[in-house]
């Protein structure tokens, strides 16, 4: 009999605004549904939306892409209702996908501490929330809760899921060194049979750059725009993603208005997941100076779209220059970032084609590896259970 795994997450399919965590869970279900029965409790609407998704039944379990999903209005999800849903089935594993979510992380842990729930295993994936960049935003409130959680031992017997060694170190540094932490890299779609098919004109002196991410301080679009301020080359900067923070976007617009005429910026709104690869194939370089990522699905997708990348050194994607697929750079050095943009501007068609194919092959090589699948099988098994 398969283990029953209950996933609590703020957003799930068909969300297109909530970014990488949604993709992580979709990929998890797609890759492991033969091994485990997945149940998902999530919001009935997308990030920032006031209305629920159309054509989705709410407040009942429905089948969605190899999982049973319970969509509900988060504003009406009271403590008694959540406890009732959680107790409907005897789950082997409860998998939480946020450290700070009150309803979908803190309350379930409270139920367990009060012995109202007795799963064999509880796993918490903080999804990059302990990175220095993430904790630097609303730091007073976040640090206060971390201290309270430690004091009340809210996370006693919880297994922490880190997607890489850096995230593990951040959790230990910012929360507690005496925790049980398991590393399992985020899974991707299966790209092993994908072929390189990018055909994009590249002339010296011009460049098409693409950004695909949420418009939020964490993603650091403002610095990317400021870096372009000093460029003398003909650059088109295509921006895709939901405006999650309107005041931050206003700051970005202020910079966009004073950019030199050789820089063209296009904001293209929200992009559906099935359109991402097409967009990447029509741009030369992916640009994301994020303050922190526990994985970076957009980076993985960019490489598979044949886009070499210029990213910050705050992601697991490191030492990219040694693979000749781009750079992971310090956010403290705008001049170096500008130099790498100029490098791409000056590439010829032949030089770009070679680098583009290398990016694709590297992205394909780094997609689902057997060791990652095995790590998740162990994570969701009955091993390391507590009484």
Automatic annotation (TrEMBL):
Residue span(s) of domain Glycosyl transferase family: 196-355
Transmembrane segments: 93-112
SUPFAM superfamilies: UDP-Glycosyltransferase/glycogen phosphorylase (SSF53756)
Protein name: Glycosyltransferase
Key words of the record: Membrane, Transmembrane, Transmembrane helix
Organism classification: Bacteria, Bacillati, Bacillota, Bacilli, Bacillales
């Amino acid at each position: 009999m398969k283990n029953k795994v209950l996933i609590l997450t703020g957003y799930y399919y068909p969300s297109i605004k909530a970014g990488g965590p949604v993709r992580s869970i979709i990929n998890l279900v797609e890759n492991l549904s033969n091994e485990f029965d997945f149940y998902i409790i999530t919001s009935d609407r997308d990030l920032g939306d006031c209305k629920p998704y159309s054509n989705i039944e709410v407040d009942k379990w429905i089948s969605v892409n190899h999982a049973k999903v319970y969509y509900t209005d988060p504003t009406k999800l009271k403590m008694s209702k959540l406890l009732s849903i959680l107790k409907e089935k005897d789950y082997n594993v409860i998998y939480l996908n946020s450290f700070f979510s009150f309803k979908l992380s803190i309350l379930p842990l409270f139920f367990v501490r009060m012995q109202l729930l007795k799963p064999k295993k509880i796993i918490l994936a903080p999804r990059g929330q302990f990175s220095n960049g993430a904790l630097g935003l609303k730091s007073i409130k976040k640090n206060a809760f971390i201290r309270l959680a430690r004091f009340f031992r809210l996370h006693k017997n919880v297994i922490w899921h880190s997607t890489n060694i850096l995230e593990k170190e951040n959790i230990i540094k910012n929360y507690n060194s005496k925790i049980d932490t398991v590393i399992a890299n985020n899974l991707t779609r299966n790209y092993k049979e994908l072929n390189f098919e990018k055909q994009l004109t590249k002339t010296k002196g011009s460049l098409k750059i693409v950004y695909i991410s949420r418009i939020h301080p964490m993603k650091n679009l403002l610095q990317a725009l400021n870096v372009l301020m000093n460029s003398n080359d003909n650059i088109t900067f295509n921006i895709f993603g939901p405006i999650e923070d309107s005041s931050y976007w206003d700051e970005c617009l202020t910079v966009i208005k004073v950019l030199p005429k050789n820089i063209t910026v296009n904001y293209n709104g929200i992009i559906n997941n099935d359109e991402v690869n097409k967009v990447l194939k029509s741009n030369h370089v992916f640009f994301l100076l994020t303050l922190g990522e526990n994985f970076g699905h957009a980076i993985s997708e960019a490489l598979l779209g044949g886009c070499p990348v210029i990213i910050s050194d705050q992601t697991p994607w490191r030492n990219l220059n040694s693979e000749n697929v781009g750079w992971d750079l310090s956010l403290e050095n705008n001049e170096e970032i500008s130099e790498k943009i100029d490098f791409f501007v000056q590439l010829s068609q032949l030089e770009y084609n070679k680098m583009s194919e290398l990016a694709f092959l590297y992205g394909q090589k780094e997609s689902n590896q057997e060791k990652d699948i095995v790590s998740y099988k162990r994570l969701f098994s009955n091993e390391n259970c507590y009484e």
